[in-house]
Amino acid sequence: MESQVNQPGSAGKSLLVSRQASRRAFKDKAAEYGITIGGTMVFVALLLIFFYLLYVIKPIFDGAHIEPVTSISYQNADAKTLMVGADEQNEILYRVTALGTVDFYSSATGQLISSFTPKLPEGTTVTSSAKSSPNEQRFALGLSNGQVIVVGVDFAVSYPDNQRLITPKLNYPIGDEALTINQDGAVYNMVFDYSGSRMSFAYQDANGAWKLNRQEGEENMMTEEVEWTVSEVFIEEAPKEVVSVLMTPDHRQLILSTTHRLFVYNTRDADAVELLQVLDVKKGNAKIKQVDLLAGASSIMISYDSGVISQYFQVNGEKGRLYELIREFDDVAPVSSMATEFYRKSFAVLSSEGELTLLYTTSQRNLFDEKFDLKKPGLMAFSPRSNALIIEADNKLNLLSVQNDHPEVSWSALWQKVWYEGYPEPKYVWQSTSGSDDFEAKLSLMPLAFGTMKAAFYAMLFAVPLAISGAIYTAYFMTPKVRNVVKPTIEIMEALPTVILGFLAGLWLAPLIEDHLPGIVVLLMLLPISILTTAFAWSKMPETWKHRLPETYQELMLLPVIIFVGWFSFTISPVIEVALFDGNTRQFITNDLGITFDQRNAFVVGIAMGFAVIPTIFSIAEDAIFSVPRHLSNGSLALGATNWQTLTRVVLLTASPGIFSAIMMGLGRAVGETMIVLMATGNTAILEWSVFEGMRTLAANIAVEMPESAIGSSHYRVLFLAAFVLFVFTFFFNTIAEVVRQRLRERYSSL
């Protein structure tokens, strides 16, 4: 009877247990799928970030693309071509002959739009013609009577009926009247430069003597007319037979080229022209084909008929600034003509067989090399926006489109030393922007990667000893009551915004360290000594004295010692500074020791970033040490080992995987830190380990420059490359940490 009564209850209980088991199984499956899906989504997100970074970065390593657009037969085929070019939209091409005739053609239809010929004084002929630097699009005609006419090619843009209309025309910068520069007769082999209030003409007279004519204008305040002051001087030691003549756009140098030598003259002062340097540029039996100036007019490019192209620019040395051979390009076909871009360091060379090669000097990249159907090639020039090439060949003007977005970036430019114009030697340089149009971006990632490692190194140097030591004491020696207060207090430090830490470091800590540098050094020496001395003294005290202070408050004994040492160090700092460093420690470090001292330096960054990293390392390491099974430490103590022996030989070994993971997590945190480095350093991209100098990190550089970079530019994509490098750094450290942690766990899991 009793069993009959209990049977329904047993069945209900079994049903309840079955339902609970089903719910538990459902929850287990849901948790399993949820965790799997969450982990997969995180992995997919990382892959998407990885591939998106590669998608943005890839174009900077692509080469150039050039293809023919149109070919136009021009008039006056018998006249020698002086200059070719185009307007900014590449809609109108022009050809200037050595006699001054300018023909404009439509690139769309190939029809002649207009033709202009400057009016010459009666009875004169053109004896010399010269073109200016490419971006000015001017030319000058030297006449048989010693006069000269300067002509500019211009394009007027209008919008009749809301339609853009480009009208080609000529302008005369110094007026349409001929200007006399040689009283003794005709002008030969002329070169010129015009910059508003200054004109310079270098030429040969009928006797082969070289002269420099400099005219400087000043506006008359009363008449508002420009009054010109003329200076003329003979150029001594100049060769009579020359291959080419160049003048830099700033009127400072005249360069005469013979078959094997360059004569460089200082023409900054027209009354004191002097020979700066005679440069031997002979290359065996090869002949100089063309000499030209690279954009910015700091480099001389010399092409030889053998296919070698040499770059020279001035370098500071014992004898002053002299031209030196910097680099050579010898993987091109024999050169027929050469053209340089308006603003970048790219240049194109064309062989007599129609092989076109596009190169970039600084990155030493061969961007394009292909043969075109160009017979009897002559002059070649880039369009104003460098998105097209105009090539004279077989009595035709050939227009080729050029897509060359990122020529300045290469593996060597990013990670190797590069010899930039104006620098005494090859260097790692990051300098992405400037106020000058002809500025060359310097995009080496080495200083940024080095700065990232430097900041992380000094932060870890400060944080690891404090965090690990604190974790060991808190987890192993501290009483539970005190641990429950100390551990959350340190962990809550991680909630402090890093921008506040950076703000305090930059505006308060950095000036404090600078003003009390001797005291800081004394503090670093005395603090560990005083703590160890106090601990040793406490260990030697009688037990009866020790028991008077509760175990919970024993740590508080160090507070008066730390406060006193800090007060003493800062108090004695001025005394030491006056006695040893003549009252100025910074000046002593800079002048006497030759060490650069920046107020916001690696020492400041190490302390500030250390405070940000300490909670991360401390929390993970403390949990690892505290989680070591008690039976291991108790067994060691039972076998007669001391607390210290148990700690070093049992507890720390067992917890070593967790401690190592804590250190690597802290390192990853330091590598990616942005705001502290941004506010507490000078953000100077340098390669110096000195603790008294700053740095620029990858993360800080991205934060500063990304908002200012043009979307799609080389600068923009290199910043994404910097983010990719940072991503790889973090992935590398985390992977190494996981591998080492697993090996440590396998090694000490048997303890």
Automatic annotation (TrEMBL):
Protein name in UniProt: ABC transporter permease subunit
SUPFAM superfamilies per UniProt: MetI-like (SSF161098), WD40 repeat-like (SSF50978)
Membrane-spanning parts: 33-55, 455-475, 495-513, 520-538, 558-581, 602-626, 646-667, 716-737
CDD domains with a match to the protein in the record: TM_PBP2
Stored InterPro entries: MetI-like, MetI-like_sf, WD40_repeat_dom_sf
ABC transmembrane type-1 domain segment(s): 449-737
Keyword Membrane: yes
PROSITE patterns reported in the protein's UniProt record: ABC_TM1
Leader sequence residues: none
Family statement drawn from the similarity comment of this UniProt entry: Belongs to the binding-protein-dependent transport system permease family.
Membrane topology: Multi-pass membrane protein
A GO BP annotation: transmembrane transport
Principal cellular location given in the protein's record: membrane
Organism in which the protein naturally occurs: Shewanella algicola
Compartments, as annotated in UniProt: Cell membrane
Gene3D superfamilies documented for this protein: MetI-like
Organism superkingdom: Bacteria
Keyword entries, A-Z: Membrane, Transmembrane, Transmembrane helix, Transport
Gene Ontology CC terms: plasma membrane
UniProt KW Transmembrane keyword: yes
One Pfam match: BPD_transp_1
